[in-house]
């Protein structure tokens, strides 16, 4: 068998597995029937990740948010495909029970792409990060994915670079997000994206959003003002075999937090992380939850608002792509 790197092959293989019933392909993933049908009939589908649910937000806000993301996606005309690893199985589309389990159970892992083999081998469950979600979405035939903020290059000299960045350089999926998380080194993250050949489209903006804050003041690669414009660029990008892309949507004004305010509390949270020897994949969840506490919920409110807006925007872009 050849690899999945060829999109044509992937789609062809996928449609064969549809005819057999529950879609199980080489990735051993299960795609919900509604999503299978939508993909087969050319209806827009938007992938949603689950690390934001398992490690980004507290219970019960996380479960509510997961449902709201799906509702927003549907209301904007696309079928949501929430992706996770459950008991060692790659899942595209979750039932209410599965979502609730993921949102509330103890011991749920955080899956980057490198973790997938371990999780499947040991029958474990995990929320999928941007890197793992892109990988699974692509093999399911999904081209548009909504999240809050991607991982990137961390500040300081730790050398911590999120697996989200190389994934964007190698997997042809558009990630609709509010830039990279504000806890990161945004100029370095932008440089990394340029090196990896990832276009950064500013949705109705000329500057790269800074997650909770509307702008980082860093220029985006190019601005797009509507879904048709974004879809046209993505269409041409993929037609020549190019890979990942970002569509960056600023946090809604009403919920956004001023960047100076974020910086003040971030300094404190970073100090605490160091003192408590928080490293590796625990860093992002720790900082996000400390920021929410230190701002009395302001950053969490911003996070929820931008997530919903990104789901809507992704659905519009997925719809526009289907008309091309
Ligand atoms: N967006 C959010 N909250 C999150 C994330 C995204 O609003 O928690 C997750 C994504 O899954 C992203 C991950 O891939 O944070 C980045 O983690 P790390 O920095 O450890 O790569
Ligand atoms: Mn990391």
Summarize the structure in words.
This protein has helices spanning 7-19, 33-40, 51-56, 61-75, 96-104, 116-121, 130-140, 164-170, 186-195, 227-239, 259-275, 283-294, 298-322; strands at residues 29-31, 45-48, 79-86, 89-92, 109-111, 126-128, 144-146, 174-177, 200-203, 222-224, 245-248. The protein has 324 residues and is α/β, with parallel strands linked by helices. It is globular. The chain starts with 6 loop residues before the first helix and ends with a helix. Residues 160, 162, 281 line the site of manganese (II) ion. Manganese (II) ion (MN) is lined by residues 160, 162, 281.
Task: Please tag this protein with its features.
11-stranded mixed β-sheet; 13% strand; alpha/beta; single chain; binds manganese (II) ion
How are the secondary structure elements laid out?
Blueprint: H1 7-19, E1 29-31, H2 33-40, E2 45-48, H3 51-56, H4 61-75, E3 79-86, E4 89-92, H5 96-104, E5 109-111, H6 116-121, E6 126-128, H7 130-140, E7 144-146, H8 164-170, E8 174-177, H9 186-195, E9 200-203, E10 222-224, H10 227-239, E11 245-248, H11 259-275, H12 283-294, H13 298-322
Parallel strand pairs: 1-4, 2-3, 2-7, 5-6, 7-8, 8-11, 9-10, 9-11
Antiparallel strand pairs: 3-4, 3-6
Helix pairs in contact: 4-13, 7-8, 10-13, 11-12
Sum this structure up briefly:
The protein is built from 13 helices and eleven strands. By secondary structure, the protein is of the alpha/beta class. α7 (130-140) packs parallel to α8.
């Amino acid at each position: 068998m050849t690899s999945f790197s060829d999109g044509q092959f992937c789609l062809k293989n996928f449609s064969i597995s549809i005819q057999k019933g529950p879609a199980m392909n080489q990735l051993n993933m299960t795609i919900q029937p509604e999503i299978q049908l939508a993909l087969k009939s050319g209806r827009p589908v938007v992938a949603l990740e689950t690390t934001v649910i398992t490690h980004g937000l507290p219970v019960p806000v996380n479960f509510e948010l997961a449902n709201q993301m799906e509702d927003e996606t549907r209301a904007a005309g696309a079928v949501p495909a929430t992706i996770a690893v459950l008991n060692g199985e790659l899942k595209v589309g979750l039932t209410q029970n599965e979502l609730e389990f993921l949102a509330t159970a103890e011991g749920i892992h955080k899956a980057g792409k490198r973790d997938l083999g371990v999780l499947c081998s040991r029958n474990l469950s995990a929320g999928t990060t941007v890197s793992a979600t892109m990988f699974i979405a692509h093999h399911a035939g999904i081209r548009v994915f909504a999240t809050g903020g991607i991982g990137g290059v961390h500040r300081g000299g730790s050398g911590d670079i999120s697996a989200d960045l190389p994934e964007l350089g190698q997997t042809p999926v558009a990630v609709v997000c509010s830039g990279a998380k504000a806890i990161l080194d945004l100029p370095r993250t932008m440089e990394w994206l340029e090196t990896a050949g990832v276009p950064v489209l500013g949705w109705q903006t000329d500057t790269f959003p800074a997650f909770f804050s509307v702008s980082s003041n860093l220029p985006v690669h190019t601005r797009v003002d509507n879904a048709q414009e974004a879809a046209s660029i993505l269409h041409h990008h993929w037609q020549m075999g190019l890979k990942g892309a970002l569509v960056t949507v600023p946090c809604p004004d009403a919920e956004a937090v001023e960047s100076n305010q974020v910086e003040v509390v971030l300094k404190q949270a970073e100090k605490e992380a160091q003192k408590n020897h928080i490293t590796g994949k625990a860093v992002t969840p720790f900082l996000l939850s400390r920021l929410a506490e230190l701002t009395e919920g302001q950053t969490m409110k911003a996070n929820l608002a931008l997530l919903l807006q990104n789901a809507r925007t992704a659905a519009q872009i997925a719809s526009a792509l289907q008309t091309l």
